[in-house]
Amino acid sequence: MSRKEDRGRTVGVGASGDKTIIADKRAEDLLLEAIGRVENVRILSEEAGSVGDAKAKTLAIIDPLDGSSNFERGIPFYCTSVAVVEGDSIEDTRVGVVRDLVTGDVYHATRGGGAKKNGRRIRTSEVTKLALAVVGVDLSRSTTNLVERLASLISGAKRHVHLGANALELCYLADGTIDAFIDVRESIRITDFAAAFLIAREAGAKITGVDGGGLEPRFDLEHRFSFVGSANPTLHDEILTYCRNLQRGEELGLR
């Protein structure tokens, strides 16, 4: 995507408020050019913001380079994410595509049509106990208080990981590589989430808010939210016992 010496070169600040490195800009330019050929489509991109007709019925939500910090440091885990939404809710996402820019793997889902990796159907894992689960937990820039209050959840899992590109980690949930993925920092944006949300859901994952309720993220770059995603309802219920206590500010403990 970019020469090694270009990895950390900053070319501006994106609409999201994050710095834009040259790889972000190059990837976005390619996507904007391709999607821009389609009529009646508005684009929401992490770098360019909202582009196109605000009244268009179809919205393309894109993250040209999710995991840009990994890319910048040479850590081989980053992706491109594209979601197509026809409606006002995350539940109206019709198509989701995530491409691993290191391996070339492509995750794809259509609403009601299942999820695939490189054209083959994928499903979430069958792990139902936290003690046997590999759990992705994004703690980036978390407060000390939040980390301390998540300690029981983390110690209750077989293993916890965070690889640095949330869309791709949700795809790892979809194909059974990990068993759950949570982000309770109120920090994730819709551009990091929409495509992989559909892929994981179509693969069998249960994804909710921290309280177990439905997600209602806005389609803009200002709104940040949290989520809990698990391979199946049984594991999800166990993880939610920790997250509900976290939300209420109660002391966490093993159940």
How would you describe the overall organization of this protein?
The chain has 255 residues and is an alpha+beta fold. The chain has two domains: 4-121, Fructose-1,6-Bisphosphatase, subunit A, domain 1 (Fructose-1,6-Bisphosphatase, Chain A, domain 1, 2-Layer Sandwich); 130-248, D-Maltodextrin-Binding Protein, domain 2 (3-Layer(aba) Sandwich). The protein has seven helices and 15 strands. The strands form three sheets. It has an eight-stranded mixed β-sheet. Strands 12-11-13-15-14 form a five-stranded mixed β-sheet, sandwiched between helices. Strands 1-2 form a two-stranded antiparallel ribbon. The longest helix has 16 residues, at 233-248. The termini are far apart. Mean pLDDT is 86; it is low at 11-15 and 250-255.
Provide the descriptors you would attach to this structure in a database record.
255 residues; alpha+beta; Fructose-1,6-Bisphosphatase, Chain A, domain 1; D-Maltodextrin-Binding Protein, domain 2; 2 domains; eight-stranded mixed beta sheet; five-stranded mixed beta sheet; 7 helices; 15 strands; disordered C terminus
Shape: globular
Number of domains: 2
Strand content: 25-35%
> Secondary-structure element order, as H and E?
EEHEEEHEEEEEEHHEHEHEEH
Span between termini: 46 Å
Rg estimate, integer Å: 18 Å
| CATH A-level architecture of the largest domain | 3-Layer(aba) Sandwich
Count the beta strands: 15
Could you say which structural class the secondary elements and strand pairing correspond to?
alpha+beta
Q: Unreliable segments (pLDDT under 50, ≥5 consecutive)?
A: 11-15, 250-255
The spatial strand order of the largest sheet comes to 4-3-5-6-7-8-9-10
Largest sheet properties: 8 strands, mixed
CATH topology of the largest domain: D-Maltodextrin-Binding Protein, domain 2
Q: pLDDT average, as an integer?
A: 86
CATH class of the largest domain: Alpha Beta
H/I helix tally: 7
Helix content range of the residues, please? 25-40%
